Amino acid sequence: MGNNSQKKQPWSQSIKGPLSFSLLLGLVAGVVGTISSTGGSQNPIRLDIGLVCFGVAFVVSLLIISVLTMAGKENDSELGKGTGVNRSSANPNKKFKD
């Protein structure tokens, strides 16, 4: 058939990192929401509010992480050479050979 050699994706492009971070943030928000909405030890635990807090924090953090991941794009190596009068910001007076 074909050569199915899979390259391992870096951590920044993998789905495991954002999902695990969003899950952790959702769990923390769920626990805080559950405990704070109970209102004392005499009242029953409010799992409904904790689940809503978990869902909102999970979805919002996953959305923000995905947008930031898409926005962070590596520049081409050619962009560091420049094409104008100052061809490189590190050495503005140096003349480059084309």
TrEMBL record:
Residue ranges crossing the lipid bilayer per the database entry: 21-37, 49-71
UniProt keywords, alphabetically: Membrane, Transmembrane, Transmembrane helix
Stretches the record annotates as Disordered: 75-98
Record carries keyword Transmembrane helix: yes
The protein's name: Amino acid transporter
Origin species: Glutamicibacter bergerei
Lineage of source species: Bacteria, Bacillati, Actinomycetota, Actinomycetes, Micrococcales
